[in-house]
Design brief:
alpha/beta, 11 helices, single chain, Quinone Oxidoreductase, Chain A, domain 1, Rossmann fold, 15 strands, 2 domains, 6-stranded parallel sheet, 7-stranded mixed sheet
Length: 335
Amino acid sequence: MKAWRIENDDGIDALNLTDVDIGDPGYGEVKFRVLSSSINRRDFNTVLAPSARNTPLPRIPNSDAAGEVISVGDGVTEFKPGDRVASCFFKRWEGGRMRGPIMASALGGAEEGMLSEEAILPQTALVSLPDHLTWDEAGTLTCAGVTAWNALVEQGGLTAGDTVVVMGTGGVSIFALQFAKMMGARVIVTSKSDAKLERVRDLGADETINYVDTPDWDQAVMELTDGRGADHVVEVGGAGTLQKSIAATGFAGHIGMIGVLTQGEVNPYPLLGKSIRLTGIYVGNREMFRNMNAAIAANEMRPVVDASYDFGDARSAYNAMGEDGHFGKLVIRVS
């Protein structure tokens, strides 16, 4: 079968489409045909600079995969040939707290990734898919979907009537918008693009802020909430935006720290003064994935796919990620 592999530190143009033999599934393992794999910022960064991320080479990139079961090994009880499945981000995190060894089981990094025509994973690293999703939509769930769900629901305890601030219009942010609206929350979205802000309003965003026109967007959030502040902030920027996120959060609110695009110093005093919880979010576990899929199925929610690329044109998908013009998710159709 064919797979894309990172061979060196020469970036997107050096991605190599090559033949790989993965064999047959062993005890407790499932072999499946990959039909869709979406790109996350983490995947893009790994392709650009694998050595900086201590990625073993050669390495198949991407954590996300949706596909159809081909065969199962002895001991597999959850899946059978023909079932629709998606990969879990961590190969060894079924539930409970994050632990050190779990970090060494991330697909497309420490472990082989999913940008291949076929893959083999333990049955405990797969989940069943909602029936209503297309393959393109299903291929977006593993990283961005679970990350947004974990930040808002599992860690944040999102409830109807809460106010959520969503930064930007990338994959995690659009999932966060959709989940928040699905659960009856009020959503404020920030972006530098008026065109994208118009699109999020079509998805249900209640308020929008152009942070170029309104650099003190944290104060705008306070005004929009009559001085109470947000209950949740989905923080994807890093130190460059975190101080404003803290300022925009109300008493006992929650900030899900997801992105680290910039570095710098942050004053922690307002966290203490307002009893704000700041949680580092690194995707989530299999149990969270199942909870999310149950909610997606019950509400027939559809992930937002900006563009789909053929398997042979995977490099173009990574280049599009680097241009930062996408809205929602970029997907590679594998088969």
